[in-house]
Amino acid sequence: MKKLEKIDLFDFRLENGKQRPYIPLFYQTFGQPIGSAPTVVVNHALTGNSNVSGENGWWNDVIGAEKIIDTNYFTVIAFNIPGNGYDDNFGNLITNYKDFSIRDVARIFWEGLSFLKINDVFAVIGGSLGGAVAWEMAVLKPNAVHNLIPIATDWKATDWVIANVLIQDQILNNSDDPIADARLHAMLLYRTPQSVNQRFQRNKFQDSSVFQIENWLANHGIKLKNRFRLSAYKLMNHLLKTNDITRDRGNFLTVVNDIQGNIHVIAVDTDYFFIPEENRETVESLKPIKENVFYHEIQSIHGHDAFLIEFEQLAQILAPIFNKQKQNHYVSA
């Protein structure tokens, strides 16, 4: 695994006006040295982290040598959302999780990039929660992101998302086994009835009376409990509710029109969490005022999690974006 690096941020004022005297920002880099190649920022999802490539990399099918996001050509940077616990330092966990917003996270990431002397990036890409942070990053610095690539996400929290965040928060604060129980509910948001029914077909687990679907869900709960912290789960879940790039800024078209880079919205046709209809409406509303906005859709039975499953489709969507940059480089060279 690539070594975790740390940036110390001091006297950071949150969106709600509260002051954080110190925030440690942990990150990992992959591929080419910083400053020597185009930069790609990868934002992790709710239970993810900065380890996007290499040993135990959660996006190895997309990021790496000779992959779509080619580490032989690009510099890849992935930050950990502060408080996600990936640094394994209990002192860096956040208890006052409702003080933070996605906008705070995006500002923190830009602070980190500024520290690294990176003023603009070839792409910001992320799925789910990470894609929401990507939207906010592009709005904060509309001239600094050449390609905004939000996947299986949205620029705002819909009522459906807010409702499910509340359910998750209630489970996390009231269950006797909060991480595992919250994960049971979450997994059914991330998949579809068709995916679950096709996979398990009402079969029992070995010779027991337990259904395979029950065993599968229980194992997901146990696995997450073994690698995730309760305070991290509460924070990441809460952040989803705070997603809104128009808050205190004006209407959507005015806000997004300032973004100069290409916008590639990638949805999943069966996503029951960030529904594709919302993404289609976003793109259709932007087309009259922006020529460089594009809609892509992953076709999958698996629902929201398809962005972590349907790698071949995702690679086909991403290939023209990243290969064009490489081709331009080789032609000019």
From TrEMBL:
Give yes or no: UniProt keyword NAD: no
SUPFAM superfamilies reported in the protein's UniProt record: alpha/beta-Hydrolases (SSF53474)
Q: Does the keyword RNA-binding apply?
A: no
| Top-level taxon in the UniProt lineage | Bacteria
List, alphabetically, the InterPro entries matched: AB_hydrolase_1, AB_hydrolase_fold, HAT_MetX-like
What molecular function does GO assign, one term?
Answer: hydrolase activity
Gene3D superfamilies from the xrefs?
A: alpha/beta hydrolase
Q: Where is the AB hydrolase-1 domain?
A: 38-160
Q: Which UniProt keywords apply?
A: Hydrolase, Transferase
Q: Provide the protein name.
A: Alpha/beta fold hydrolase
Its ancestry begins with: Bacteria, Pseudomonadati, Bacteroidota, Flavobacteriia, Flavobacteriales
